Every structure is written in structure tokens, then in C-alpha cells.
Amino acid sequence: MIITGVFWGTWFTLTRSIESFSNSEFLHIGQVIIENVALPMRFILPSGIIFMVISLLLFRDKKSFYFYCGIFSFILLIAVLLITLIVLVPIDNNIRTWQALTVPSDFDVIRTRWKNFHELRTFLSLASFLLFSASAIYDASVSRNKKMYHP
Question: pLDDT tens digit string along 6-63?
Fold first, then answer.
């Protein structure tokens, strides 16, 4: 939930309107956001993946459709991690060093790539969250039903 919330918040507030910002505005906003999330997300995203693995290992009905929803959710979150590490972190590392006067000539192309991968990552994380939530709710109901009928 926290992972998706961070990405959703960025998409909702920045990514959707990125073209309306001047280069210097984008740099300033981007640099501040990068500074705010870089360190915490180094812990939040891996922790989310670890907790997801643990919950899948403890899942009660491993032959159910909902267990496979959890597995697919995990795969989507790994894709989110890969997009972050392979595409977005290198762009963010470059953005951190730019000044308004040192923006590269292909800035619009870089900004569009940044936007597209942010959107992809956001919606993959949202899909992962929804699938994992369905999986967790199902597993909780299985546990509750077993307690009700098997004291």
C-alpha cells in the first residue's frame, strides 16, 4: 500500500501535468521529490517485496485462484522494482545534477521517457496492490472460516 501510494501520489500530482512545467520548474520539483523519496524507498520497496514473499509462503490455499493473484502481484512488483532501478534511477541521478542552464539538448525526450516509465510503474504497482489485496482478503476469509467450523 505504501509503495503504491508513493507512486500514485507522484503520478497524481506531477506526472500528469509534467509538460505544463518549465524546464527550471520541472528540475526544481523533480530534484526535491527525488531527495524526499530516494532514501526511504531504498527500504520501503525491498521491505514490501520481502513481506509479500512471506505472506505468499504462509498462504493457506496454494491451489486457489487468489494465490495465483498473489504470485502475479509479486511479479508485477518485481517489474516495478526493475523499472525503478534500470530506467528511472539513472534518469533521476542525472536530474539531480542538472541546473537550469545545464539541461541537456534532448531534455524533452528524457522528460517524456521519465513520464512514460513513471506512469507504467504507477499502474503496475496499482495492479499489484489490487491483486495482492484480493489475495490477502481471500486468505483471511479462509482462515476465519476454518476457525469458525473447526474449533
Answer: 888 888 888 888 888 888 888 888 899 899 998 999 999 999 999 999 999 999 889 9
Alpha-carbon distances, residue 128 vs 35, 78, 116, 122 (angstroms): 25, 10, 18, 10
Compute the C-alpha angle 71/87/6, nearest 5°.
60
The amino acid at residue 66 is Y
Cα Rg, the chain, nearest whole Å: 19
Q: Which grid coordinates are listed for 22?
A: 518549465
pTM for the structure as a whole: 0.85
User: Pick from 139, 141, 19, 119: which is nearest to 70 by CA?
Assistant: 139
Q: 104 and 27 in contact (C-beta within 8 Å)?
A: no
